[in-house]
Amino acid sequence: MDLDALGGEGEIDTGAEEEWFRRVGRQAAARALGRRWEQADGGTPVCRHCGGELKNLGTRSKTVRTVCGPVQVGRRVFYCRQCRRTRVPLDERLGIEDSGLTPGLMRLLCRTALELPYEQSQALLSDTLGFTPCSAREAERVAQCHGERLEQQKEAVSSGPFCRPAPRANT
After folding, report:
1. Average pLDDT over residues 46-73
2. Is the dihedral of CA 136, 139, 143, 144 positive or negative?
3. Residue 45, class by beta-carbon neighbours within 10 Å (0-12 exposed, 13-18 middle, 19+ buried)?
4. Is the pLDDT of residue 99 over 90?
5. pLDDT grade, residue 34 (50/70/90)?
6. pTM, rounded to two decimals
7. What is the spatial distance between Cα 171 and Cα 163, in angstroms, rounded to a whole number?
């Protein structure tokens, strides 16, 4: 990457400089993440449901949405003939099997959606990140799904064996 010298005089458009470097840095980070994640796609998995052998269907590309922007990731896809289910171990490891959004981006979506209406939340993230991570409707869906998951976890914990009231002492 070669840049023209700024010279010793005149105004410097710092906003344009910062935005250019942010975009280049984000693109470099996205490429590095994609390579790193593809290298982690190894091993021979078994079916999670029946323990059966999986047939390798080859590598399929997926666009993963991250805080660095969209990342193209090639990952291996497997099929269980017994259960007739597909499994993508790398998606499971990355936590993206349901939405294609990384947990980091989902945290940002939920955090801004907690504070602002969905349209404003989406606009704030787009301005801050320098790209549009998702639509306002998708931000709403992600936040609601995350909220439901938290409620289920809260209920599971509150009904667990360690949350029973202590027995009364006989006096």
Report:
1. 94
2. positive
3. middle
4. no
5. very high
6. 0.77
7. 24
Between the alpha carbon of residue 26 and those of residues 21, 34, 70, 100, the distances in Å are 8, 12, 10, 18
Cα separation, 53 vs 36, whole angstroms: 27
Provide long-range contacts, Cβ within 8 A and 24+ apart, for 46-53.
Answer: 47/80, 47/82, 47/83, 47/85, 47/87, 48/87, 49/80, 49/83, 49/85, 50/80, 50/82, 50/83, 52/80, 52/81, 52/82, 52/83, 53/80
- Residue 139 CA to residue 78 CA, distance in Å, equals 30
Question: What type of residue is 5?
Answer: A
Residues in the chain: 171
User: What number is the average pLDDT over the span 35-51?
Assistant: 92
**Long-range CB contact pairs, 98-102, < 8 A, 24+:** 99/142, 100/62, 100/63, 100/64, 100/65, 101/64, 101/65, 101/133, 101/134, 101/142, 102/64, 102/65, 102/66, 102/67
CA pseudo-torsion sign 22, 23, 24, 26: positive
Give CA angle at 155 (149, 161), nearest 5°.
130
